[in-house]
Design a protein that fits this description.
With 171 residues, the protein is α/β, with parallel strands linked by helices. It is built from six helices and five strands. The protein has a five-stranded parallel beta sheet, with helices on both faces.
């Protein structure tokens, strides 16, 4: 599996130079390994580094289907400008579908959806502070205002989000 680099520190914006270098290295790795097809890409976003163990399952599913993806940590609460800029520029960078995982208030999927016309799939996540096993995040993602749709999978359903993204890409 090729994992796209993400900044190890939550909420730290990656500079344009570092982003360009990372993108070039990733493209070279895709060509070298022949592991993942080029073409449609999926972005996997999460609000916290602690969400990585669950959200990596989406990457594993996409890699198994030979769908290129990138994986990033960005917080809708700590760095909303970073999230907005990423969402606005996603299409220009070849992203076709965005998977966004978040727990508690689960703002990330909705904030991303408000800044892009790409399909956004929300993954409600559990944490030690979750209400009723992630019900808080599930309701926050499922109950979006009119005009800001977010598809929603089950709690901790990152793999299903990847399956849905693959189906959207085939449409």
């Amino acid at each position: 599996m090729i994992e796209r680099p993400h900044d190890p520190e939550e909420g730290v914006a990656v500079t344009a130079d570092r982003e360009a270098e990372a993108e070039a290295a990733i493209e070279a790795a895709f060509e070298e390994e022949g592991d993942v097809t080029t073409g449609p890409r999926v972005a996997i976003l999460m609000g916290s580094q602690s969400d990585m163990p669950v959200m990596e399952k989406a990457g594993e599913e996409l890699a198994a289907r030979r769908i290129a993806y990138e994986i990033k940590v960005m917080s809708a609460h700590r760095n909303p400008e970073v999230v907005a800029d990423y969402a606005r520029g996603a299409r220009a960078h070849g992203i076709k579908v965005i998977i966004a995982g978040a727990g508690l208030s689960a703002a990330l999927p909705g904030v991303v959806a408000s800044h892009t016309d790409l399909p956004v799939i929300g993954v409600p996540l559990t944490s030690d502070n979750s209400v009723a096993g992630g019900l808080d995040a599930l309701l926050a993602i499922a109950q979006m205002p009119p005009g800001v749709p977010v598809g929603c999978v089950g709690v901790n359903g990152a793999r299903n989000a990847a399956v849905l993204a693959a189906k959207i890409l085939d449409a």
